[in-house]
Write a structure and sequence with these properties.
The chain has six helices and nine strands; from the N terminus they run βββαβαβαβαββααβ. The protein has about 210 residues and is an alpha/beta fold. The chain has a single domain, classed as Spore Coat Polysaccharide Biosynthesis Protein SpsA, Chain A (Alpha-Beta Complex), CATH 3.90.550.10. The radius of gyration is 16 Å and the shape is globular. InterPro entries: MobA-like_NTP_Trfase, Nucleotide-diphossugar_trans.
Amino acid sequence: MTPDQAPRHPQVAGLLLAAGGGRRLGGRPKALLRHDGALLVEQAARALREAGCDPVHVVLGAGAEGVRAEAELSGCVLVDNPDWGEGMGSSLRAGLGSLVGSDARGALVSLVDQPGIGREAYARVLGAFAGETSLVSAAYGGRRNHPVLLGAAHWAGVVEAAQGDQGARAYLRQHSAEIRLVECGDVAEPYDIDTGADLGRLRPGGAH
């Protein structure tokens, strides 16, 4: 299936958390790092669209002006998180808040600093959406990781529990029995770009 043939899921929005300041990367905003010739934020947003998410909301924080100026994010809804320094929880709250009142019945949450996760994993998790009570997570060798699909019935609880850098972790731990795991270890790698050593995983110019 080509990206243009991917089924659309207008009930599920892509929610890309791209506000991180890269503190352990010397203050380089993660959204503006390059991999395979494109910015990480561009790659992730495109993969969410190609997987079938509609619309895609991108939460910006550190380097937001640079992202707006440099990144090709046409068709995406850009959400500013002025509290990005508080951690991932604030971005998750801002992103879910931007979906309240929309037609979305679910949100597929992804992180900008996981370039090893792409369209195939997004599409698998998205394919498990069954309604507002859905709670779905990618798994790698049976271990839960991103992306995570949050049905709208869970948003208020996630927002209440999302603090610091925990994101939805506390809420998912409390509701672990409800989570449907979708194995993605054969199509993706859930590594993070967190430290200078991790930059070696990036191919800025696209050379393999």
